[in-house]
Amino acid sequence: MRWKRMSAIAVLAAAAVAAWWFTRPAYAPVPDTIACLVGIYRLDDGRLVDLAALTNAPALRWRLLDGRSGRLIRATDGRWQKRAGWGDTADTTAIEPGSCASPALHFEGQRGQRLTFTEQDTRFSGAGVSLAGRLVLPPGTEPVTIAVLVHGSEAWSAISHGYFQRLLPAHGIGVFVYDKRGTGASSGRYTQDFDLLAADAAAALAQARRLAGTRAGRVGFAGASQGGWIAPLAAQHSDPAFIAVSYGLADSPLAEDRDQVVLDLTRKGHGAEALAKAREVTDATGVIMASHFRDGYERLAELKTRYGHEPWWQDMHGEFTGDLVRWPAFALRWFGPFYDEGTSWTYDPMPALQTLRPPLLWILAGADREAPPEETRRRLLSVAGRGNVTLVEFPDTDHGIIEFVQQADGSRTGTRIAEGYLPLLVDWIRDGRLGAGPYGRARILAAGGQSPP
Fold it and tell me: With bands split at pLDDT 50, 70 and 90, how would you rate the model's confidence at 264?
């Protein structure tokens, strides 16, 4: 979930500017010098390397199907600075993306040829908004599986920055990618209202089928993070042939904050008594968030008086609780609405999951700090008996199915995508079942949902 941190400067500035400036996502178009290099390249040895534009710098992220990844940052002198994984360590990988005049990737002694696909840009109507979409199909005329990419909580253009629109077509899978409302070329205001976002996703599925025509085979949803809430809900208003979810939650957004706080305190060595008290706090902050900053302040003030002096209090962070306990009630009442993005905080995903009919693949990150997996694992196993759920977990990975190194202070630096994750996702979406693998260290917890290809 995406929650805007309430910094002191931002709160002071909120008094002087309109709310629109706080709720509108920041988005800068990809520079031409970067956009011209974006693509997926097949190396002489057959491997695939994707180059995707990053959202916060004139930079590229490269990815291999095996999960290795790094950044290429364009310096002011035009040279490329290489960084390994998601950290700031210099990368020794031999990679040169070329230039706009000659976008010829060289990677570890291999030359890369950029792949081309059939692309069709479109606009379609969501729930009261005009959305920008793109259908990407692999070469050929035969029907293919098509994945409608359901966004996470990001506030950037999926069309400009998403890499699955190339990775999946490179493996024979069609893709429909669209900019969520309020981002990129789509109209409307950015929101995290799940009902609106699910209606948009259902409209995207219908548009994908219409555009693909006779090439539309099995058409379904593939989403990550927040997409785990949106895609099953969208299925109630459409007829997807499958749903694939990565590192999402089968619990409420409020539970995400609660579970993150538990992790915060557990990492700091606090015991059961502190966790029980913190649960009272997250219940109170949850009321404030769910009421969109209208209610719940008296209870939070009472708890602050009772527990605010105890050592565990300052160790609470979570999705939003750490912010809310550090600000006085008047600041939250006045300025909290500037940060309100209409999130469906109390949404319970279980009714949608319990009635879901199409095959469902759900991939958990076993050490996920943003979407702690324990309750989601339990809930999905409880519905797996219907036979349509494939549940897979990659141990020792964080949000994004990303492996990491952990520092002495508990912070993490992502090193790579877990080996096997991308091939597993490709196989299941394309073929309707898991293949022979291997899929790295993946643990298959439930093996249903094996639809015919």
Answer: very high
